[in-house]
Amino acid sequence: MDEARVGLTRFWMVKAGNDLKTAQIVSGFCRHRWSFGNGGLYCQQAAEKAVKAFLIWHDQLFPKTHEIESLVEQASTLDPRFEEILDAAELLSPYAWQFRYPGDVEIDAPSRNELDEALQPAQAIYDFVLGILTRETHPK
User: What whole-number distance in Å separates Cα of residue 64 and Cα of residue 47?
Assistant: First the structure.
């Protein structure tokens, strides 16, 4: 077993888990609507990093992208079960840019309900990847 690859994969999963926890904190404790867009970004980042962890585990290069669906499509060439999470990936990808840049905060910011709806697929993707990866790559 390549210890460096195990460690790098685990590091990406730790980062993904931290992003997911941050999104949960934003959802649970923040009261200002502008913060919900940040929470959505963390949902997107958690899912993106989890899929990238899977690709790293399989020693696959991937493009520098925030489009989770393209990463999921790449991962599905290694494991067809990834097709099961394509819809979740498509839902989360816009959070990488949609609420991140200047605009009308009150119009552009998602509601708490929308953030909570983004948390579900982010958690599902994280759990899905964790279930596929070997235990030594799991966060401790």
Answer: 15
Give the predicted TM-score (pTM) of the model: 0.92
**Contact, 41 vs 98, CB < 8 A?**
no
Q: For residues 133 and 102, what is the distance between their CA atoms, to the nearest angstrom?
A: 38
Length of the chain: 140
Buried b / exposed e over 110-133, threshold 16 CB at 10 Å, is bebebbbebbebbbebbebbbebb
Would the pLDDT of 6 be above 70? yes
* Cβ atoms of 106 and 93 closer than 8 Å: no
- The residue assigned the tokens 């949902």 is 43
Give residue for tokens 């948390």: 119
**Which tens digit of pLDDT belongs to each residue from 25-63?**
999 888 777 788 889 999 999 999 999 999 999 999 999
Q: What is the dihedral of CA 58, 127, 26, 56, to 10 degrees?
A: 0
C-alpha–C-alpha distance, residues 34 and 19, integer Å: 18
